[in-house]
User: What shape does this take?
Amino acid sequence: MDISLSHVDYRYQVNTPFERLAIQDVSIDIPSGTYMAIIGHTGSGKSTVLQHLNALLVPSEGVVAIGNREIKAHQKNKNLRQVRQRVGIVFQFPEHQLFEETVEKDIMFGPMNFGVTEAEAKKRALIALKQVGLAEEILEKSPFDLSGGQMRRVAIAGVLAMDPDVLVLDEPTAGLDPRGRKEIMEMFYALHKERQLSTILVTHSMEDAASYADQIVIMQQGKVVKQGTPEEIFSSPADLVRMGLDVPEVVRFQLKLEEKWGTKFEKIFLSIDQLSAAIAKQLGRGVES
Amino acid sequence: MMEKMIFGRYVPADSLIHRLDPRSKLTLIFLFVCIIFLANNWQTYAIIGIYTFLLIGLSRIPIRFLYGGLKPVLWLVIFTFLLQLFFTREGHLVFHWGVVKIYEEGIRMGFFISFRFFFLILMTSLLTLTTTPIEITDGLETLLAPLKKVRFPVHEMALMMSISLRFIPTLMQETDKIMKAQIARGVEFASGPIKDRIKAVIPLLIPLFVSSFKRAEELAIAMEARGYRGGEGRTKYRQLSWKWGDTLQLVLLVIITILLILFRS
Amino acid sequence: METPIVSLNGVTFQYDGQERKALNQVSFDIYDGEWLTIVGHNGSGKSTLAKLLIGLQFPSEGEITVCGIKLNEENIWDIRKKIGMVFQNPDNQFVGTTVQDDVAFGLENMGIPREEMVHRVEDSLKKVNMTQFLHQEPHHLSGGQKQRVAIAGVLALRPAIIILDEATSMLDPRGREEVVETVRALQDEKSLTVISITHDLEEAAKADRMIVMNKGELFREGTPEEIFSMDEQLIQLGLDIPFSVKMAKAFRSAGIPLSKHYLSEEELVTELWTSRSRM
Assistant: This one.
C-alpha cells in the first residue's frame, strides 16, 4: 500500500494563545514495500509526521493519501478505522499500552477491534508471539508479570496480529540493552523482507538508518530538509554535521581516515566490511607501486 | 470549552493583587465568605460590589476574559435568580399571570442571593487567577501550621498537593499518548453507543493506573535517596513574605466590614 | 595502593520471592576520584548494586563500606549525604514544581538554612549550565535538561560520589551527550567519584575502569582496553563492542596487521596512516 503526504502542515491548539506550527509543507512518498527511516532531533516534527501516517492527526493543510483513501484538511474525515487497520504503529515504549489480563487477550485486542473472529484472533496471536521470539507458555500469563523486554515484544505482537500492510515504528528499541536492540531491529527487517511490509522507522540512530533503510528523510524544525537513499544522504556528511546530526560511525571513520591520508575514496561506505575491504585494497595497491 | 474555562487557572501578570502574599489572599477569601452574609440591603450589596470590582481592577485581569470564562457559571446565577423570583411568596404581589405569581420580596431575594453567589464566584476566581497553585499550597501550609499540634498532617498534605500539581501535565501527556496508541489498535473513544464508549475507557485507564503506580514507586525511591524522611527537621526553600500591601489589604477589608455593619438594616 | 572510597566484600542479595540471587558474592573496590563504569545486560544485577550502595536495599550477606563507614540501617542517612544518585527516568525523580524547587528538595530534607540553600541552588545550577531555567516547570524541559537538574540536585548536597543509574538510557543522542559532558566536566574539575551504570559503550570507553556484571556475578574487572579485548565474549554476555573494536576486527580479517588488540578510533586512524606511509 502506497502512502504519500503532499504539502502537509499541522498546527497544534489552533485558535488559542498556544497555537504552534508543528510541521510545514511536508511532502513524502512512501511506495509500497519501502523501508524508510525518518531522522531528526526531538521536536523536529517527526512524531507529528508519524501520526499522520494512520490518520491519528488530520492535516491542517494538504493531503495525506493512504492507499486509495485521501485524508484532506478542512473536511470531515469519517471511518478512519479501515485506514488504521492497514497501518500498524508501534509507539515509543509500546509496553505502556498493555492492559489485558493475559498476554493472549492483549494481542487479540487489536484484531478483534477490527472485526476479526475470536478463533482467527487466537490463531494470529500465536503466530505473532512466535514472530517476536516469545514462547507459547507465556500466552496465559499476565503481561504485567513479564520482564520489560518481554512486555515490549508482547506489545509489538499486538500490532503485528492486526496484520497491517504498513508498519510504523517510533524508536522501537529505546531503553533496551544492546542484545535486545539488535534482536528487535533484525526481527523488523526480516518481516519487511518476508512480507514485503512497508516499514517506516522513526529514529535517532544513524547506524540503524544506514543499515536497514532504503530511503532516508531528514527533518528539522518541522520541515523535510533532505531526502534520498542512505548513500546519497551520507555522501555529504558536512550537511548532517551542520544540522547537529551524527553520521554513522563507519562514515565518521572513513572521513577521519581521508583527512589523515589526504585522499578520498571513490565513495562513502556504509558497512564496516566494505570499508575495510576498500582500505585493504588501497594499502595493497600501495605495496605494488 | 476546556480552553475557555478559567476556574482554577492562573494568569501570569505583575499586578498589586498578584504580588500579595498568598496567606493574605487566603485570609481575605475566608473572611469575605463570612462578611458577605452581613449584606442585606441595596447599600451593603453596593459596598460589596464596589469592593469586588476594585480588586478585579487592581488585578489587571481583562474583564472580557473574565466574562468569557465565567459565562457558563452565569447561567447558574441566573437560574438562582429565577428560582428565588418564582418561589418566594412574601411581600406585595407585583405580577400575576396564570400560575406565575411574583412578589416584591421575591425580586429582592432573587437579586440579593444571586449577587451573593456571583460575588463569591468572582472573588474565588480572582484568587486562583492571580495566585499559582503552589503559592496557594504554601499559603495553606503556613496558615494551617498550628494544626500540627493536634497531629493533623499539614506538611504531608501540602507535599501531596505540590506533587500532584507537578505531575498533572505529565499525566496529561501520558493520557494523550496511551489514547493514541489504543486508537491505533482500533479503539473508538468518541463515537458509538454509550456502552461501547464506557468499555473503551478500560484500555486507557488500566495503563494509566499501572504507570502512575510505577511513577509513584520510583518517585518515592528517588525522594528517599535524596534524604527525604518526613517533615521533621526540614527547612523550606520557598519563602513567603508579608509586605505592607498585605497589611493594607486586610485593613481595607476591616473597613469594608465596618461599613457593612453600619449600613445593614 | 590508594585506599578505596567504597568497598564491597562478598555482597549477596536476593529479592523476595525470586529463586535466583540478584547478586552473588560480589567484591570490588572503588577509588577516590575515579570514573567507574558498570556494564551488563538487563537483569545482570547492576541496578541492584546501585540500590545497595545507597542503602535502598541491604545485602543479605557480605558488607559494603562507604568512606570508611560500614553501611547499615542506622547510618544510611549519613551515607546518603556522601552518595548522590541520578535515576533512569527523568520525570520520576523530579519532585519540585520548578527547577529551583527541585534542586532545593534535598537541601530542605537536610535542614540547610535558607540563605545557604539559595546560594547552593544557584551554584549547582551554574555547574550544570541550567541557570537560565531557574523558574521553569519540568514539562517544559527536555529529558537531557531534566537530568541535568537532577545532577544539580545531587551536587547541591556536596557528595563525594555520584551514581548514574542508566541516567542516559531514555535520552536522545543530544541529551545523552549533554549529560555525559556535564558529569565529565564536574569530575575533571574536582575529586568527584563517578559510578556510571550504562549500556552506552562509547561512554564506557572513556571510563577509568570498568566492571562487567553477568547473572548477578562480577564477571570481569579492568580498564576499558582490557574489557574490550574480550570482544566475542562481550557479545555472548548480551553486550556490544565499541565501533573501533569492530573495525579493527574487520581489518585483521582483511589481512591488515595491527600492532595491538585494542585501539581507540584515533589510534586506529594513526596506525593505518603509518602503515600507508611505510609503503
Q: What stands out?
A: The longest strand of chain A covers residues 20-30. The mean pLDDT of chain A is 90. The longest helix of chain A spans residues 178-195.
